Amino acid sequence: MPQDVVTMDKIVALCKRRGFIFPSSEIYGGLGSTYDYGHYGVLLKTNVKNAWWQAMLSREDIVALDSAILQHPRVWEASGHVGGFSDPMVDCRTCKGRFRADHVADLQCPQKPSKCPGEGPDCDLTEARAFNLMFQTHVGPVQDTASVAYLRPETAQGIFINFKNVLQFSRKKPPFGIAQVGKSFRNEITPGNFIFRTREFEQMEMEFFVPPAEAEQWYQHWIEERRTWYTDLGIRPDHLEIRAHAADELSHYSSGTSDVEYLFPIGWSELEGIANRGNFDLTQHAEFSGEKLEYFDQASGERYVPHVIEPAAGADRATLAFLVDSYDEEEVDGETRTVLRLHPRLAPVKVAILPLVRKEGQPELAREIHDLLRFAMQTEYDEGGSIGKRYRRQDEIGTPWCVTVDHQSIEDRTVTVRDRDSLTQERIAIDDLPALFGGRLAAPWTTPKLAA
Ligand code: GAP
Fold first, then answer.
1. Which residues line ligand 1 (CB under 6 A)?
2. Three-state SS at 439
3. pLDDT tens-digit profile of 47-97?
4. What average pLDDT does the chain have?
5. Ligand 1, atom 12: nearest CA belongs to which residue?
6. Is 53 in the same domain as 172?
7. Does 159 share its domain with 258?
8. Ligand 1 atom closest to Cα of 157?
9. Minimal CA–CA distance to 210: which of 295, 130, 135?
10. Atom 14 in ligand 1: residue holding the nearest Cα
11. Residue 316 — φ and ψ, nearest 5°?
């Protein structure tokens, strides 16, 4: 495997420099591990989420849902989050630091010289205590125990509590799935590594309800589907692996979980989990709510509680993986070029339109081309600075094609199309551009980094 030039520091710097993602509340000194997405970051993450939605909704057996972030507190009792959604935590009485007890060996104490918490001569750690990760708030003006509510720590429960509604209105029967994308919140003790682990993040989760006897088959199906989703979108297959959880790692609800792991600069880490949740969730919510949550097949007279296969992905974590996997540097004419070799479907901007000079009718023609393309795909018009500088900027945001308008364009209505990865330039008639780019965006794509 060729050595990757990418580091987390380079990704963080590029995201800041080009306005993808930056620390939140920066003018107030920031708020630990919260990030804001700028223009290109929004476009990139939206493309990731749209690719996920498309993979889900192009099937006939999945429907969409958007449930509320605030839900009845009993939801979280039934799901096990009130009682069990916690990490073991230790505090240091000296430095006042708070650390995850099971991560201590990988963490650094803020005291100098920095060592693992507990290792320094002045460290004074408490016993480990369970720390619930849910953010608590109050609904309404009175702050008492009756008004307690939680920000959802996962989107999944919003799906389970709507099983009956969706079954009724969607005219689906198992096997079928309900998909949802939305914000989740966890008061992580040790967030970090940029947008890998934050306290506010977006999830893309799908609960697939199946007849119990088909659960294992669908579990295997979804592991393979989800692996292919990442590689079809350009992730190098040798940077992706499926890791089955050992029995002592499984969550309380799971009879089998496999993680899709990606080789981040911090090492192999979870990108997505695919879990066989059995009938745990529907059974719990039926018991706590008193509603029957089961499927009755009128044809066969069969009645059962479906089992659930859940592919649960993070939109921010996937965005980070696509950034990391596409990051590249190469020498061109004695200079280092930084480029994001993103799949064209994920690239924030598909086509940049650049007049070579700001005169001789070139800006006007470039604007005309911009108008020809911009309602079909994300485009950008840029006339500022040298052409080399403008190309470098587009390379850094991952724009697959640059259209350059020059003096010949005025004479024969042709332009040059520069390819981000090969750096080849072809001469194309302006009228052919919509079909050219439309075709390229629809075509399968593999990352040129594989050939490197
Ligand atoms: N419903 C199951 C569930 O929520 P999870 O493994 O806790 O499972 C699913 O979360 C995915 O959500 C993870 O694989 C990860 O991509 C993302 N995720 C979880 N916690 C996160 C955090 N603190 N920051 C960013 N992404 C997170």
1. 154, 156, 186, 188, 197-198, 201, 203, 205, 270-273, 312-314, 316-317
2. helix
3. 999 999 999 999 999 999 999 999 999 999 999 999 988 889 998 988 888
4. 95
5. 314
6. yes
7. yes
8. 1
9. 295
10. 272
11. -70, -40
279 with 376, same domain: the answer is no
Q: Does 289 lie in the same domain as 196? A: yes
Q: Is the pLDDT of residue 270 over 80?
A: yes
Range of the domain at 249: 8-71+154-323
Q: Which helix (H) or strand (E) holds 109?
A: none
Looking at the structure, do residues 262 and 158 belong to the same domain, yes or no? yes
Judged against a pLDDT cut of 60, whether residue 2 lies above it is answered with: no
Are residues 184 and 281 both part of a single domain? yes
Residue 224: inside a domain, yes or no?
Answer: yes
CB 261 within 8 A of CB 270: yes
Q: Are residues 257 and 311 in the same domain?
A: yes
Our count of domains for the chain comes to 2
Give the pair of three-digit tokens for residue 124: 């004074």
For residue 12, how far is its CA from the centre of ligand 1 (angstroms)?
A: 21
Helix (H) or strand (E) holding 162: none
- Give the CATH number, domain containing residue 399: 3.40.50.800
In this structure, what CATH number is given to the domain that contains residue 24?
3.30.930.10
E strands, 151-239, in order: 176-185, 200-210
Residues 6+ apart with CB under 8 A from 412: none
C-alpha span between 403 and 215 (Å, rounded): 50
Residues sharing a CB contact under 8 Å with residue 166, sequence separation 6 or more, in sequence order: 63, 65, 172, 178
> Which residue's CA lies nearest to atom 16 of ligand 1?
314
Whether the pLDDT of residue 184 is over 60: the answer is yes
Q: Is residue 108 part of a domain?
A: no
Burial (Cβ within 10 Å: 0-12, 13-18, ≥19) of residue 213: exposed
- Taking each helix axis from N to C terminus, what angle separates 315-326 and 39-57, rounded to the nearest 10 degrees? 110
CA 183 to chain centre: 11
By percentage, how much of the chain surpasses pLDDT 90?
Answer: 85
Q: Which of 419, 418, 421 is nearest to 446 (CA)?
A: 421
269 and 393, same domain (yes or no): no
Interval between CA 321 and ligand 1 midpoint (Å)? 14
d(C-alpha 398, C-alpha 96), whole Å = 43
List the residue whose alpha carbon is closest to atom 4 of ligand 1.
154
d(CA 81, CA 324): 32
